[in-house]
Design goal:
12 helices, alpha+beta, 4-stranded mixed beta sheet, 21 strands, elongated
């Protein structure tokens, strides 16, 4: 028995199940680059009539005259409030900060020095949402000469941001730059004051709520910079179902029952010999089997019940692996994700196990004289002229694949289903060349064709590698 693979955490059906590993936003990239960005201060209450200002926008007249509460204004006992209009003829640098933000503190030490150096042309205005007592004591302790705006929320509405330090440069009545602290250098200030064209790498802010899933409804952006994701959801409200692999490292299966999701993951997988119902065992009760197997619906003829079943028991799975991953990587990860989620949600997992079951075995007869190959490309094809399956330098398993596919058509032509798994017990290790001319929906016809090669089909109880749906943990009695 092979081990069952599990990862992550399971969630309720009403929520999206996701393990996400992505470079989420430009903010995050900036934080890594600077090793300094901190989460922003708590967001202010939104005001419907405030339009955030962008690069090149003119500062509205109202904003110039907005009173800003102040601490640490020189000299001692100076102003307790200012307006931006007081510094309209200077280069203004608004610096959003907080006492808990270590990068902000490092930045303010530099800004304090720069203010003294460019006193005639520069106005550095630190801005914090924090209360007067806390901010004033902190600034006094640091020995800064810079005053700071305190208890301020309105300016953030005009200059929204997700991380601090966050700086807004204003010159000649317009927004010159929206940047982090890396541009607050003497040479940059000198160039801006001189009217030179400075190439700022402006910060890009996107809506981001840390309490909501990333990229849902635009939270954190449109997902174009996502590098990895794994998502399981309930049924889409659309009468469609299927699977698509846009690239080798991606898969989307939508509105599939649990059984079909697993079949998709097991395609071309070493975990199972074939992706076929003959090789599936359900070691769960009938109620659970009804919920995870679409085959149970074949006995349901009530349209309303079928519609309800699809609504409650269909799921979607989306996986994006890093570039360079292939289909096998995708299938293996999908299998692990399904086991992890449904192992918690339904208490059911899937494993590949050797089981003693009634089967149809391909065996050698006394007339077997050996099979070999002349080499060349490995092929399995259908010769229409001779109505024969042609194997060229191929394993016997290719014959079993074809038999499984053809036997699935028996009900379509009015024959009873054939439910036994087919297993190779010939002991033939290498590839072979064969031309098997038979009616493959008829076991007797296939037996007759195989006997020409000294092979036969025998019904027997034997060991077969099966796919088993079973309880993750045995239900309590």
């Amino acid at each position: 028995m092979k081990p069952i693979l599990r990862i992550g955490e399971g969630y309720a059906l009403s929520k999206i199940y996701s393990s996400l590993m992505a470079v989420a936003t430009i903010m995050c990239l900036y934080a890594v680059k600077q090793v300094s960005a901190q989460e922003a201060e708590p967001a202010a209450t939104a005001v419907a009539d405030v339009k955030p200002l962008q690069i090149g926008d003119t500062i509205p007249e109202y904003l110039w005259h907005l009173p800003l509460k102040l601490v640490n204004h020189p000299p001692a006992g100076g102003k307790d409030s200012i307006t931006l209009n007081d510094y309209r003829d200077k280069l203004i640098i608004l610096d959003f900060w907080a006492t808990w933000c270590k990068p902000c503190i490092s930045s303010l030490y530099k800004l304090d020095t720069l203010q003294k150096q460019f006193a005639d042309g520069l106005a550095v205005i630190p801005i914090t949402y924090e209360e007067e007592e806390k901010a004033e004591a902190f600034i006094t302790n640091k020995g800064w000469s810079l005053p700071s705006v305190i208890e301020e929320a309105n300016l953030k509405k005009y200059f929204p941001h997700q991380s601090i330090p966050h700086q807004v440069w204003i010159k000649s009545g317009r927004v010159e730059a929206i940047v982090g602290p890396e541009y607050a250098r003497a040479n940059m200030i000198r160039d801006v004051l001189a009217g030179k064209n400075v190439a700022f790498n402006h910060k890009i802010e996107v809506p981001f709520d840390k309490m909501k899933p990333l990229f849902i409804n635009g939270n954190g952006g449109n997902g174009s910079n996502m590098l990895y994701q794994s998502v399981i959801s309930g049924r889409l409200q659309a009468r469609v179902a299927g699977v698509i692999r846009p690239y080798p490292n991606e898969i989307l299966a939508y509105n599939y029952p649990v059984e079909m999701l697993y079949k998709t993951a097991l395609q071309n997988s070493a975990l199972a010999p074939f992706n076929n119902d003959r090789y599936i065992i359900y070691d769960v009760d009938d109620t659970l089997r009804f919920r995870i197997s679409q085959r149970a619906l074949k006995e349901v003829h009530d349209d309303s019940l079928r519609s309800r079943w699809e609504k409650e028991n269909a799921y979607c799975y989306n996986l994006v692996l890093p570039k360079g991953s292939d289909i096998q990587d995708v299938n293996e990860r999908m299998f692990r994700d399904l086991n992890d989620f449904f192992g918690k949600y339904f208490n059911v997992v899937v494993a590949s196990e050797d089981r003693e079951v009634p089967a149809l075995a391909i065996v050698k007869t006394a007339g077997y004289r050996g099979l070999s190959t002349r080499g060349g490309e490995t092929l399995r094809s259908w010769d229409a002229d001779s109505r024969a399956l042609v194997l060229q330098n191929a394993p016997v398993s290719y014959l079993i694949h074809y038999m499984n596919a053809m036997l699935d058509n028996r009900p379509k032509i009015g024959l009873d289903p054939f439910n036994r798994p087919i297993v190779d017990e010939t002991g033939i290790a290498g590839n072979v060349d064969m031309m098997v001319s038979a009616k493959f929906t008829d076991i007797g016809s296939v037996r007759e064709a195989l006997q020409e090669y000294g092979l036969d089909l025998a019904e027997k109880v034997t060991t077969v590698k099966m796919i088993v749906f079973k309880y993750n943990q045995q239900p309590k009695q």
